[in-house]
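Q: Got a minute? One more chain.
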Amino acid sequence: MPEGHTVHRLARTLTTLFAGRRLAVTSPQGRFAAGAALLDGAVLVRAEAWGKQLFCGFAPTPHAEVQHWLRVHLGLYGAWTFAGSGDDVVHAIGAPRRRIGERDSTPVVVDASDGPWTPPAPRGAVRVRLLADDAVADLTGPTACEVLTGAEKSAAEARLGPDPIRPDGGRASLDAARDAFVDRVRRSRVTVGQQLMDQAVVAGVGNIYRAEVLFRAGLDPLRPGRDVPAGILGAVWDDLVALMRDGADTGRIVTTRPADRDGTRGVPDVPDGARRRTRQNTDGDAGAVPADEAFYVYHRDGLGCRVCGTPVAVADLAGRNLFWCPSCQA
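A: Always. Here it is, folded:
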C-alpha cells in the first residue's frame, strides 16, 4: 500500500497536468459510471492529499467554488497511470508491483507542440479516466472511489489524524498537529507501534515509515502509548515531518543517516528477497543512496543492525510485519 508521501506526489502530478482545465471524466470499466457522470465536463480546480486519501475538487468554471470532490484511496492494488502528448506512458504511481510505496518516477510536463494527440486505449479495468486534450490519467484497482460534497469531504477529513506532510499538519498549525498526535498516542494503552499505523492517530504513515521512525527514536514498538514520554513522541512527530516531506519531494524513502551508511555498500550477505524488495527505492539514480543502505530495519530481518550489530527482528503486529532492533529499541 502506498505511503502518504506518494499520495501527495499524486496530488501534485494531477495539479500539474489538469488544474484549471475542463476534463472528460469516464469510467471505462463501468463501475463508476454514475460518479463519472457527475464530474464529466467540469474543471479540476485542485487536487490535494490528506494521509493516504486523495481529493480532487471539481467546479463548473476554473474560479468557481468546488461542487464535487472525487475521493480516492488506492489501498493495496490501486494505481494511477499517466500519459501525455509526445510520450508513451509517463509514469505510474501506486500498486505494490512497482514498489511505488518506496519510489516513483518523476512527472513529465506534457508538450502538445507536435500537433493533435490521441490518448492510448484504457489498459485493464480502468475505474476512472480523466482526459484533457493532451493528457490522460487512468485509475485502476482502488479500494475507495466516490464523489463527495464539501460537507462529506470535511467529515472524511475529520476522521483522520494529523498529516506530517501538510503545511499545517491538517490542524490550526503544525504545532497544534504535533500536540494532537502526542495527546492521541498518550491517551491509549495500545502499543505505539500499532498506533503509528492507525490513520486516525497520524495520517499517511505506513509500514516503512513506522519501522524506521521508531528505530531512529530508539523506541520499543511494543511499548504502550501512554507510557511513552511526551517529549519522545514530539521528537517522533518532528522526524516524521522531515522524513515524509523529503519523500514527497524526492519520490523515495531514505531514512538512514550518512554516518550509518559507511561500509554497508555491497554487503554480500543481503538476502536476494531483501535486495529485490528495496532495489527500486534508489538504485539507478545518479548520486542517490543505494537501496541496500536506505533503511535501518525495514525488510532487514536477520541482518545485523547498522548501529549495534544485533540481528533485526520481525514479528506480526495487528496483521502487519513489524521490524525492529531488539537492542537499540529495548
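A: The CA atoms of residues 26 and 275 lie 40 Å apart.
Q: Perfect, thanks.
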